Amino acid sequence: MARAVFPLFILHALTLLGTMVASAEEAFPLLDGDRRAVIVGSSQFLLEAVERCTGVRLRLVAERDYKKQALGYPIYIGDTHKAREVLTKEIASLDAEGYVFLVRPDLAIIYASGAVTDTGTPLLYAEANFARQFLAVDQYFPGELGLVYPRQERITIPCGLHVENPAFEHRHWSGYSGAAGPAWRLRASGGGGRYQFHHSLYKIIDPVKYGDHPDYFPMRLDRRSGRIEDTRYIPTDNFSAYWQPCTSNPAVLDITVKTILGAFAATPGLRSYSLGVNDSGGYCLCPECQKITPEGYTPQSDEAIGYRFYKFYNEVAERVARNRPDARLGFLVYSALSKWYPEKLHPCLMPYLTLSFADCWDAEYKRRIYAHIDRWSRIAPRFGIYEWYHGQGFFIPRIYLREMAEGLRHAHATGAEGFYAEAYANWGLDGPKLWVTEKLLWNPKQDVGKLIDTYCRGLFGEAAEEMRAYFAFLETAWATQKPSNDKRGGYRLLTSLHKKPQFTEVFSPAVCDAAWALLEKSEAAARTEMVRTRIAYFRDSFGATRLASTRLQAGETMRELLEADRAPALEGQEKKQRSVVDWLIVLEAWARFPSLDDYMTTIRDRAPWSFQEFCEDAIKSRGKSPERQTRTSFAAWDTDAPALRPIVDLVTDAVIATDPANAEQFNRQVLTHLSDWGEQAKRNGRFCDHAVGVLRPLCTRVTMDGKRLASAPKIDGTISKEEWGDPQLDGSLYRYPLENTESGDRTRVWVGVSGDKLFAAFHCYQDPDTVLNKVTERDVAPMHERGVIDHGRPFPYLGEVDSVGVSAWENGWVVAIVTSGGGLFDGKSTPKGYIPDWNGAVAAVRKTEDGWAAELSMQISNPDALVGAVKGFNFFRVRNGVRSAWVPGQPQRWALAPNRAGILFFPQQ
Ligand SMILES: [Zn+2]
User: Fold this and answer.
1) How many whole angstroms separate alpha carbon 463 and alpha carbon 525?
2) What is the DSSP string of 508-572?
3) pLDDT score for 787
4) pLDDT digits (tens, 9 = 90+) for 748-763
5) 249 vs 311: CA distance, rounded Å
6) For a surface tag, which of 8, 175, 443, 500 has the fewest beta carbons within 10 Å of its beta carbon?
7) What's the 715 CA to ligand 1 centre distance in angstroms?
8) How many angstroms does the Cα of residue 284 sit away from the middle of ligand 1?
9) What is the per-residue DSSP string for 449-485?
10) What is the pLDDT of residue 833?
11) Is the pLDDT of residue 14 over 50?
12) Ligand 1 center–CA 245 separation, angstroms
């Protein structure tokens, strides 16, 4: 039988629509006028793909019913007799997930095993890959927007033979599992995969099962004292981390071997088992373990710990192999285990090297990573790569596909068979990163540039060139970065954990503006609505990077100016004070962008898969009513303008100097002043409208009119109109830690004086079923050695609780906090923390139909001073740990700290 033999992958060159037209002699007519294919066998994907592209539904028949003369051009799909007859040799060469396409003028075959593997159904992605190659059908990222079904009238398939096996047998990443459309030929979820290697020892030496054998568990190093604990640690709760079994104990070895052999016996088809260390250290340093120490090292050193573990692993493998010579025992080369290279490793053992190619732009780092791979490749005939590919937690794009491809090629050439990544994709920032990597895992020799071309052409059509330039710019920005420190590795610049301003060292506002210009150029090139929408998806996503970077840098500039203003004048020099207008102009650079949270709220619906947090929120919110859906806040990643509060103070001081009689007069004056200053700036050719816009609500919300109450309200939790009159505040408080973001929860606040007491009442609107009533006691809090309640420790009145509070100036700062459960904390407030030895408050709470209410009174030692404008008050609310306040919090600090206070206007007696 004549068969055209094409070299592997030559068909990649034919993926583009325009090149798919082939003459009748050398092409198979999937749909070409009257000549149509009939699907013989079964189709999980192609049938629908053809219909979505052409509107034509091809005929589908079982192989036994197929009659060639009657039915035209057959395309055999699946494990068919025809495939087995024609492709015997090719099928024999296939990996469990491999597949074959054969295309001739008279027939076509798509063969893959119908069996489900750890990754999915090979036939499904064989069909999907056929559709990608010959119909340009693809899913580039999750969601409808990432799906491409090009409209076409006729589809002919060029003849050829195509056999594909994965270069990396095990391909797997963590993160949103819906990311993997049918064509994504890897496992995308937590756990599993062809070879097991992840944290596992806590499951083998199960503390619940073996808790009465202390000698299976470790004597750990107490890091604070530097001494080894003299009792063994038997984990109770959270037992998957911070400990390892005592590997010198022969019983631990026996149990490990028995567990593994038991699993192989119980699970037909199981090929691998994990021996991975538990996370976060906690290695045993008992006297017996210490005896196993290589010459020249101390027993506590990482090298000795690694040495001990490899000895243990070898012993386990040797015994398992007696029964199961083909077993693979995966493990992580991680933590102390990456500090020692064993001389010999049992061939059943399969290490996964934890590393990241992200920083391979640094030649010295790259040399180290490659040397590590090379050295392990000589120790272990089979190994895997464990890459920190995030995604999540980064607020900048991290595209390093060329380094990734080179790294994968190198790893594969030296024997790597497994690949795992913590991917947690930011689809909107990282663009082609994951799509291209998935292709490289099947064949790392592919040209990355061509793959990115395919991605851009598929998604952006007429604007492909422009978008390609944008992604190339992002990759270059990463590759040419010049960081200020020599830290390297996968988690570097992770914003969510560390809020590292260093991310602007890669994406400075200027670099962001240049990238932005490329996005605008792409938009201008777009001609179709779909392409415009897709470009907007990436522009909206990158807008978050640009916003975060610009605000961060503007904030840093303000911090420096503030410090300069506060520093004493140099001798012999007079210090020039910045005016309010000067500050407004400085603030403008920060204020021209909205807060990160507000921005993310606007893009969440337009670009639902762009950030991993959105993906996770969507998964957690499935089937829940709108008010119970999860919404990750990005506030902690944002920057505050450090000068915001000082500028508010400048404005407040200027207005108080005009002697307003009450809050309303004060607020009118604020608006007049702000608009005058704005005009003044404009006359000098400067613009500060955004700054004025930010200040307006802040400056008109620092005053309230305090009432003189006719009589002292009864503190019983019932806020009656007769006692309290109308509330002075009805709306949303400002949410910590930001200066100018409202919490969104409605709160009503009343405040007044009577006799020698200050009274305050709160009505907190919320679903009554969500009110947290845990804390019911008075003044219970963990004290610090210094005699204060430490800000850094859990404080029950502000933790996972609903509460309200008042801070006031009363011979020093005092604070009273009332929980919805009736708990009360009243004490002094100092910059170092709270001291509970002030007991001037009385409080009562009550549940209402629409939330809960609190009343409280505070003893005042000098009530005669409460006349006219009095500074020194704040009101706040905590809802399930989320704090908000009347006068918003100082950047990075909690609003209860002294000096965050508003002004009450008290009428004359
Ligand atoms: Zn031990």
Assistant:
1) 5
2) -HHHHHHHHHHHHHHHHH--SHHHHHHHHHHHHHHHHHHHHHHHHHHHHHHHHHHHHHHSPPPTT
3) 65
4) 999 999 999 999 999 9
5) 12
6) 8
7) 62
8) 5
9) HHHHHHHHHHHHGGGHHHHHHHHHHHHHHHHT---SS
10) 75
11) no
12) 7
φ/ψ of 119, rounded to 5, equals: -90, -25
Ligand 1 centroid–CA 348 distance in Å is 25
Q: Is the pLDDT of residue 288 over 60?
A: yes
Residues 37-49 have pLDDT tens digits of 999 999 989 999 9
Q: If 0-12 CB within 10 Å is exposed, 13-18 middle and 19+ buried, where does residue 868 land?
A: middle
Average of pLDDT values for 257-266? 98
Contact 113, 123 (CB under 8 A): yes
**Helix and strand totals (H; E) in the chain:** 26, 34
pLDDT tens digit sequence for 518-546: 999 999 999 999 999 999 999 999 999 99
Span from the CA of 341 to the centroid of ligand 1 (angstroms):
21
Ligand 1 centre to CA of 254 (Å) is 15
Question: What pLDDT was estimated at residue 784?
Answer: 63
Question: What mean pLDDT comes out for the span 468-482?
Answer: 97
Return the closest-CA partner of residue 854 out of 781, 731, 771.
771
**If you average pLDDT over residues 426-434, what whole number do you get?**
96
pLDDT at 895 over 70: no
Among 271-275, 646-650, 853-857, the least confident range: 646-650
- Domains of the chain and CATH, by start: 10-165 (3.30.379.10), 201-446 (3.20.20), 704-906 (2.60.40.1190)
CA of 21 to the centre of ligand 1 (A): 69
Q: State the distance from the centre of ligand 1 to the C-alpha of 253, rounded, in angstroms.
A: 12
Is residue 645 very low, low, confident or very high in pLDDT (cuts 50, 70, 90)? confident
d(CA 174, CA 191): 8
What is the whole-number distance in angstroms between the Cα of residue 757 and the centre of ligand 1? 64
Residues within 5 A (CB) of ion ligand 1: 246, 248, 284, 286, 289
Instruction: Identify residue 335 by its one-letter amino acid code.
Output: S
Ligand 1 centroid to Cα of residue 251, in Å, is 11
Q: How confident is the model at residue 786 (pLDDT cuts 50, 70, 90)?
A: low
The pLDDT assigned to 68 comes to 63
Could you tell me the distance, in angstroms and rounded to a whole number, from the CA of residue 687 to the centre of ligand 1?
69
Cα(203) to centroid(ligand 1), Å:
18
The rounded mean pLDDT for the chain is 89
CA of 242 to the centre of ligand 1 (A): 15
Rounded to the nearest angstrom, the gap between the alpha carbon of residue 688 and the centroid of all alpha carbons in its chain is 34
pLDDT at 589: 92
Distance 323 CA to ligand 1 centre (A): 27
Kindly report each contact of residues 602-608 with a partner whose C-beta sits within 8 Å and lies 24 or more positions away, as own/partner: 603/540, 603/541, 603/543, 603/544, 604/631, 606/536, 606/537, 606/540, 607/428, 607/536, 607/537, 607/540, 607/541, 608/143
In the numeric block, which tokens belong to residue 695?
């200040």
Which among 863, 861, 764, 776 has a CA at the least distance from the CA of 805? 764
Separation of CA 343 and ligand 1 centre (Å): 22
